[in-house]
């Protein structure tokens, strides 16, 4: 009898010691599922004085890793019970009994984590709080060195979509900070992409993660010499990149994607005392035709097309102030329009 109650006491002790148990790394594999808190609490109610913080990781390196898909179901009842979810970008959401609603999903990109802290007060209120975590093996994308000189750096994450892996990703590493020009925010696909992220750094070594839907300007400057970009599969998420020394000479208008422009849509650039640059990229193939060029300001200090990115190894292709013959076909995949104190418009296709 004594032995029996001793064993019982041990069992109780081991359950209560384990309530805050984290997901063991060894248990993370493709299609594995976890319930937090421990399954007995997940399917029951939270004890009083509960206070656990779960770190839900999506472990990864540049060649191998997982995404985590977390479903948070708030069934808190006690007026003083709460949960705090810290997202991959560091933003915090507090959930209480007053904020009940349908379960909320968090998708954790490879290399990142979220935390979920669940707190109940001393009175047992039959609160529930369920966190279900599903792991999926990720397809880790390419790691590219930034090209230098006359070559432009650009990428379309949508081209990596395989319809199965949740995220597509690519990393660029350079020798200085990287200026990335993300898809024009007028693009609804982009604005609607809650699960598109920019990581300042590499998968293994980064300082911060941003949700692109919450970057209110559409350019991004890394603080490290690398950036990693993620998109949800199926999103045509396109961007160009420039080393900071190249980018900082200009104010950036935007860049244009041939396949996202309607055939009759015009590009307009407004007069500005700053030197401005616009990178035009055909993301699909070689060949850009320019037509209907019009300079509409009385003064036009500068309006030129240079090859590649606006680098001093790029070459002057056309001076737009000399009334060049239009349409003009460039047998190129990309070029840059540089202008200053000049309002101009044209079409590309
Ligand atoms: C919960 O635990 C954390 C970490 O141990 C502690 O810092 C915090 O004060 C606790 N909160 C409550 C409400 O007990
Ligand atoms: C990534 O992790 C896997 C599994 O741990 C390992 O086999 C592989 O060598 C790692 N790759 C790199 C580039 O570190
Ligand atoms: C061209 O490149 C050289 C060498 O990197 C640099 O010193 C110079 O400032 C650059 N010129 C311009 C106009 O950017
Ligand atoms: C201004 C600028 O970015 N210049 C760069 C152009 O490309 C060459 C060759 O890669 C670099 O050395 C320059 O720094």
TrEMBL record:
Keyword Zinc among UniProt keywords: no
The name this protein goes by in its record: CUB-like domain-containing protein
Protein's organism: Caenorhabditis brenneri
InterPro entries the UniProt entry points to: CUB-like_dom (IPR003366)
One term under GO cellular component: membrane raft
GO BP terms: innate immune response
Pfam families per UniProt: CUB_2
Domain CUB-like: 45-137
Metal-binding keyword on record: no
Signal sequence residues: 1-17
UniProt KW keywords: Signal
């Amino acid at each position: 009898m004594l032995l029996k109650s001793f064993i019982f006491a041990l069992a109780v002790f081991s359950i209560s010691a384990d309530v805050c148990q984290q997901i063991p790394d060894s248990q993370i594999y493709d299609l594995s599922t976890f319930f937090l808190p421990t399954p007995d609490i997940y399917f029951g109610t939270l004890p009083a004085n509960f206070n656990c913080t779960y770190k839900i990781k999506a472990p990864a390196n540049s060649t191998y890793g997982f995404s985590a898909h977390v479903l948070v179901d708030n069934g808190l009842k006690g007026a003083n019970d709460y949960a705090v979810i810290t997202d991959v970008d560091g933003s915090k959401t507090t959930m209480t009994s007053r904020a009940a609603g349908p379960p909320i999903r968090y998708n954790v990109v490879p290399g990142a984590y979220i935390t979920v802290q669940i707190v109940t007060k001393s009175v047992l209120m039959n609160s529930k709080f369920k966190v279900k975590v599903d792991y999926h093996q990720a397809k880790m994308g390419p790691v590219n060195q930034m090209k230098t000189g006359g070559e432009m750096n650009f990428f379309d994450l949508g081209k990596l979509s395989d319809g199965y892996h949740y995220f597509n990703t690519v990393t660029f590493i350079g020798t200085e900070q990287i200026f990335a020009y993300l898809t024009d925010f007028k693009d609804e696909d982009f604005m609607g992409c809650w699960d598109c992220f920019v990581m300042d750094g590499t998968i293994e070594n980064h300082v911060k993660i941003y949700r692109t839907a919450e970057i209110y300007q559409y350019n991004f400057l890394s603080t490290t010499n690398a950036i990693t970009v993620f998109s949800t599969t199926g999103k045509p998420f396109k961007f160009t990149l420039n080393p900071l020394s190249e980018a900082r000479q200009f104010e950036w208008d935007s860049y244009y994607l041939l396949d996202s422009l309607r055939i009759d849509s015009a590009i307009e650039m407004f007069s500005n005392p700053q030197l401005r640059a616009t990178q035009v990229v055909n993301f699909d193939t070689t060949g850009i035709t320019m037509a209907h060029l019009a300079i509409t300001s009385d003064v036009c200090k500068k309006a030129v097309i240079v090859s590649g990115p606006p680098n001093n190894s790029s070459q002057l292709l056309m001076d737009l102030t000399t009334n060049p013959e239009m349409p003009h076909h460039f047998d190129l995949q990309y070029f840059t329009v540089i202008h200053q104190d000049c309002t101009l418009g044209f079409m590309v296709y």
